[in-house]
């Protein structure tokens, strides 16, 4: 029986995995695909260390597995749900796109390397999820290795990220002595390295093993019982509403590599992860995913880096209704109507040819230059626009000039367009009006340089001025020239707002002490 569009929408679970490089995101993704039936063999992707991370890890999976996935969105069905996993490129592919992708998901899975704890890139991505108030599920990975104490890891969540946590399960032993997990949520023990019926062992009413087992004699089991008791008494309560608001993160301990705890995680995650959520328009109206009319917004534009193909793909998160190939949509920003004939859909399994996508899904539109990041596309007669995507605080800066001064016109045109498109951020120095570019990842500069040459025929010279701590100013009129210096450069952003670029956190603090009346703030 065919599902109604409403049921289709309700079955969607769209999320991203956030983590610091090497925490195990690729490995986890692969295991999830395996359970989703999208790949047959959940071996690990080998040899990644040797190559430069010029392309997404997922393309690596694609190459290794020979399966039909695109590098940006993976889709599979599990337990009656259609799961969309959006890639958040890290390593050298880290860029504003990584942040913006988080605008297009309804939930996030945070992978933590249990030996390393919460790492910098995780903190950055977490903050964006936090700002959106989306549910965040934590997977403490690599339990098959000796890592930090489980309670210490949970404390880190609260101390470093400021999010409360609830352990859905709790590890029994660690590293070579990793016996399994005490599954608080399902009231059972899940055994590591044991397949078949006894993989799960039941607990009795006192929360102890209900069957005789040698494990009960081990210090690891006793310790786990003690810790679980402590959590029961002094820890947070499981509260689905707080999970939904992103105030409480359910924590799972496991090992993606040895495939331990992944399936239980997936099943529990799918139970609590939300179906597609409404989005606000600029006029503060919520657009219901089940609304009849199609709507969506563009969160990423990917230019083809191959000069032979100048096409670009605009990634649309569908917010409401359904999409059909060939339909016409309006881009309200430019009041233009376009027919969507050339689209890409992201499917891990190409046996299913789907010409339709619904709220929660991601579609890729071939773009000849119509779209900008943040654009709304709507079907029917609607004309609203979704609220703007946030701008992110850049951390890296370059001073940029055209190698050939005769090309100055093209240079400025190219910059203007790439800035509008969201590929890079534009700043200029106050008196000399030199052009600076800001980015959150080095890749953005490389893409900029490449596209300036290929699309605007301008070779650029980029002088790296390094990483800076950028701060905007609430009371601009109180700022004086004398406050600037080697360690605190003053520039303007593309909207002519003043921005201080501090050499480092130390310089920022020094400035704060010296000029306490200047109210600084950062974007996300
Ligand atoms: P990433 O996408 O987050 O960057 O991480 P990725 O999955 O590539 O994993 C990084 C490394 O950590 C890989 O090892 C991977 O095998 C390992 N790893 C992932 N999950 C686990 C786990 O649960 N336990 C253990 N012990 N290791 C894990 P590598 O040496 O970089 O690559 P490989 O050659 O072993 O594949």
UniProtKB/TrEMBL annotation:
Swiss-Prot/TrEMBL keywords: Cytoplasm, GTP-binding, Nucleotide-binding, Protein biosynthesis
Subcellular location field: Cytoplasm
Pfam families: EF-G_D2, GTP_EFTU, RF3_C
Residue span(s) of domain Tr-type G: 10-277
Primary site of residence: cytoplasm
Binding of GTP, residues: 19-26, 87-91, 141-144
Keyword Cytoplasm: yes
Signal peptide start-end: none
Family assignment from sequence similarity: Belongs to the TRAFAC class translation factor GTPase superfamily. Classic translation factor GTPase family. PrfC subfamily.
HAMAP family per the UniProt record, alphabetical: Rel_fac_3
Entry function: Increases the formation of ribosomal termination complexes and stimulates activities of RF-1 and RF-2. It binds guanine nucleotides and has strong preference for UGA stop codons. It may interact directly with the ribosome. The stimulation of RF-1 and RF-2 is significantly reduced by GTP and GDP, but not by GMP.
Protein name: Peptide chain release factor 3
Species of provenance: Sporosarcina saromensis
